[in-house]
Design brief:
Strand order of the largest sheet: 15-16-17-19-23-25
Number of helices: 7
Radius of gyration: 27 Å
Shape: elongated
Number of strands: 28
Length: 387
């Protein structure tokens, strides 16, 4: 097919002199997109109010490198796509929404990042290759499905695990070929341990947290009979070498990420912890095996916190630590400051506790707090603190 074929509306983008297929006007059942077209626009072949019930097959030339969202949507007779062999190929979201006759799709081998992909009701098979290194937990969902139920009963896990290079290990969907943790598939643990052997934490690996926090900002919900909580602590094995951008995006309950290796062994993207509210104040986001204690605090004035933490710690050890309000009055600080001190004690406890209430209990009769276990508080030397 020639670029000037009247069946195709093709526009030229002056900025990069690329040609985009905006609309198909013909009546052929098999459509050969003209060579030279570099992108396919949204709804190029059909629209929700004007579906195409003629096209059964679309053949794309190797010149195509971008297919925008909904590009093939509402082609109700479509049964086959012949993908371009282009190493820069990008697939947009929900390409096949409303394609009610589509029964099988093979993800192009050059596509390693997958966006949201709604599954038409009749689609029986999605074939994935072994080189996908970025995919969200909710990538594959059935059209018209309840989003909460779809998220908790991940079709993405089912689709990927048909390929032996993808395995569900300790709650993580792992690409074992690339040693990449693609996403966390469990929903009922506050403390998470990434499997040993994983070397890369993929983009949006913990994206399911966004789902939980959208469903309930308090982050504890029950859907489909399952109790779901937001992650608060993540432990990374020494095998991990890279944390990709946006790996922990929107994990607004996340407090601690610890790493069993040394600082020099880990590459952390500056965008890895975008919108992690409870970690914003931390100077160091990932606590490595060799991270000095004094570096864990933001560069701001902390009035006498070293003394306060030690005194609270000693009171807790004896089981005679008063209520938070009384502690605030004792030290002349706000209640919220004491609450933060309790969180810092948890950080420096060296225990596997994630929630403060796992480490510090309250005796209602005695009106005192106490520790649930023995340990030595490990914080920076007093000389590191500014009064």
């Amino acid at each position: 097919m020639a670029l000037d074929d009247s069946d195709f509306i093709i526009k030229n983008t002056p900025r990069d002199n690329s040609k985009s297929l905006c609309s198909y006007l013909g009546n052929d059942s098999v459509v050969h997109v003209p060579d030279g077209v570099m992108s396919i626009s949204s709804c190029a072949f059909g629209e929700e109010g004007k579906p195409n019930d003629v096209i059964t097959k679309i053949i794309l030339p190797d010149s195509v490198e971008k297919i925008e969202k909904y590009a093939f949507a509402f082609c109700t007779a479509l049964k086959e796509i012949v993908w371009p062999e282009n190493e820069n190929l990008f697939l947009g979201r929900n390409l096949f929404e409303g394609c009610s006759s589509l029964e099988k799709i093979s993800i192009p081998k050059t596509v390693t990042n997958l966006e949201e992909f709604k599954i038409p009701a009749n689609l029986k098979e999605i074939e994935v290759h072994s080189d996908i290194v970025r995919i969200s937990y909710g990538c594959f969902t059935y059209e018209e499905a309840d989003p909460l139920k779809s998220a908790l009963n991940s079709e993405t896990v089912k689709v990927l695990c048909k390929n032996p290079d993808y395995r569900l290990i300790d709650g993580f969907l792992v690409n074992v070929k690339h040693k990449t943790a693609l996403f966390y598939a469990d929903k009922n643990k506050r403390t998470v341990h990434v499997p040993d052997g994983v070397e890369i934490i993929a983009e949006e690996c913990f994206d399911e947290i966004r789902f939980l926090n959208t469903a309930s900002r308090e982050a504890e919900i029950e859907v489909c009979g399952r109790h779901c909580v937001s992650i608060e602590k993540v432990t990374l094995p020494a095998s991990v070498k890279k944390i990709r951008p946006f790996a922990f995006t929107s994990c607004d309950k996340l407090k601690y990420v610890t790493y069993d290796g040394n600082t020099s062994d880990l590459e952390v993207s500056p965008e890895a912890f975008e919108w992690c509210d409870k970690m914003e104040w931390r100077k160091v986001k990932v606590i490595c095996h060799d991270t000095p204690s004094e570096k864990l605090f933001a560069e701001k004035k902390i009035s006498g916190q070293y003394v306060r933490l030690n005194q609270i710690h000693n009171l807790l050890k004896t089981g005679n630590c008063p209520v938070v309000k009384e502690l605030a009055e004792k030290f002349g600080v706000s209640v919220s400051t004491i609450e933060r001190d309790f969180d810092d004690i948890l950080l420096y406890s060296g225990t596997d506790c994630v929630n403060r209430t796992d480490l510090i209990k309250y005796d209602r009769k005695k009106r005192t707090h106490y520790y649930t276990r023995d340990f030595e508080l490990k914080i920076a030397d007093e000389s590191m603190w500014r009064d």
